[in-house]
């Protein structure tokens, strides 16, 4: 037990150090004097620098390290995926979408700055993300990362999933029936696609400008890991909406059922949902076999997701 506790402390300190690197890098990307109107800069920073888990940047960094890269080389990709994620949260909270007034422990962007500014702060983070990739990476990995991020965030990825999430909410109120297949597809798109993009970007920043690029088997392993991890992560997000506490998660709870959202606990109940998340976590860890020991940290992060309380 003592050994496991020590390992856990060491790992959480490791993650904390990587988060600090990401926070510092993000802060430098969003400084005054870059030609951004001060009111827009304030709104961008408000959501981006707020307290949060930085899970997607950590996935980029851990993936890059597993592929033999460095955290410094991974920072542009880590920052870019966090900017896109933060934009997705700002827009997700808008009255036309989930209509949430609390995010990352603070009033949602539109509550604090108004809807027009929230929409534009989201747009600004989305577009700046691609500039950060283009400016910060060597040309071949920049192009690959732009492609992966656009694919993950775009119409066949996160945005498509958000559309299906909202459609299921409306249909569900009318019909009251949904299939698990629909739900899995929504989770894979709205949440899984960006997570997979982060993992693949990690491989590209580590190896993208080598002559042969990233190893195809490792890219496939990361993609498999991301599919399981993304699904498990959104199940735990749905569970926290039912079982979590606002003070810990920094957002309102019990909102999904109230809105008629299609969720795992709504469809399967909480204990089956938790078992499903555990099985997905095992699947995620098994996907890392081609990495050998180099995949240990990614495996630990997957296990942490199961235990998370925020
Ligand atoms: C919330 O993401 C939205 C989902 C896709 C589940 P996170 O739970 O990673 O939120 P932050 O980034 O820590 O605020
Ligand atoms: C969010 O799913 C997915 C996104 C792409 C932002 P949710 O709507 O469940 O996320 P929260 O619970 O508001 O963070
Ligand atoms: Mg939503
Ligand atoms: Mg939401
Ligand atoms: Mg949620």
Strands, total number: 2
User: Could you tell me the strand content as a percent range?
Assistant: under 5%
Separate helix tally: 15
Rough outline: globular
Give the distinct bound molecules: 3-methylbut-3-enyl trihydrogen diphosphate, magnesium ion
Outline the biggest β-sheet: 2 strands, antiparallel
Helix percentage range: over 70%
Q: What's the gyration radius in Å? A: 19 Å
Spatial sequence of strands, sheet with the most strands = 1-2
End-to-end C-alpha gap: 24 Å
Which residues sit in consecutive blocks of at least 5 with pLDDT less than 50?
A: none
Structural class: mainly alpha
Your description of this structure?
The radius of gyration is 19 Å and the shape is globular. It has a two-stranded antiparallel sheet with strand order 1-2. The mean pLDDT is 95. The protein has helices spanning 2-29, 38-48, 55-66, 71-92, 109-113, 115-136, 139-153, 158-175, 180-207, 216-243, 246-249, 255-259, 264-268, 270-287, 296-307, and strands at 102-103, 106-107. The longest helix has 28 residues, at 2-29. 44% of the residues are buried. With 310 residues, the chain is an all-alpha fold. It binds 3-methylbut-3-enyl trihydrogen diphosphate (2 copies) and magnesium ion (3 copies). One magnesium ion binds at residues 237, 241.
What's the arrangement of secondary structure elements?
Elements (H helix, E strand, L loop, with lengths): L1 H28 L8 H11 L6 H12 L4 H22 L9 E2 L2 E2 L1 H5 L1 H22 L2 H15 L4 H18 L4 H28 L8 H28 L2 H4 L5 H5 L4 H5 L1 H18 L8 H12 L3
Antiparallel strand pairs: 1-2
């Amino acid at each position: 037990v003592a050994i496991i506790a020590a390992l856990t402390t060491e790992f959480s300190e490791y993650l904390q150090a990587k988060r600090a690197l990401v926070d510092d890098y993000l802060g430098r990307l969003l400084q005054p004097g870059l030609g951004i109107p001060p009111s827009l800069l304030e709104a961008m920073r408000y959501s981006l620098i707020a307290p949060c888990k930085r899970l997607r940047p950590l996935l980029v960094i851990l993936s890059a390290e597993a592929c033999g890269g460095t955290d410094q080389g991974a920072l542009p990709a880590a920052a870019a995926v966090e900017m896109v994620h933060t934009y997705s949260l700002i827009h997700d909270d808008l009255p036309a979408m989930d209509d949430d007034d609390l995010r990352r422990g603070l009033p949602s962007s539109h509550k604090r700055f108004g809807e027009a500014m929230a929409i534009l702060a989201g747009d600004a983070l989305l577009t700046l993300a691609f500039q950060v990739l283009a400016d910060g990476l060597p040309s071949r990995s920049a192009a690959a990362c732009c492609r992966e991020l656009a694919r993950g965030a775009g119409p066949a990825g996160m945005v498509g999933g958000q559309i299906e999430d909202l459609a299921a909410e409306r249909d569900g109120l009318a019909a009251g029936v949904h299939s698990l297949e629909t739900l899995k597809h929504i989770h894979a798109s709205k949440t899984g696609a960006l997570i997979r993009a982060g993992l693949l970007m990690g491989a590209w920043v580590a190896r993208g400008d080598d002559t042969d690029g990233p190893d195809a088997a490792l890219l496939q392993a990361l993609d498999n890991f991301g599919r399981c991890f993304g699904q498990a992560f959104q199940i735990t997000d749905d569970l926290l909406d039912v079982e979590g506490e606002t003070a810990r998660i920094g957002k309102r709870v019990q909102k999904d059922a109230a809105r008629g959202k299609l969720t795992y606990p709504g469809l399967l109940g909480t204990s089956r949902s938790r078992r499903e998340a555990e099985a997905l976590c095992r699947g995620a860890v098994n996907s890392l076999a081609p990495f050998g020991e180099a995949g240990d940290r990614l495996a630990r992060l997957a296990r942490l997701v199961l235990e998370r309380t925020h």
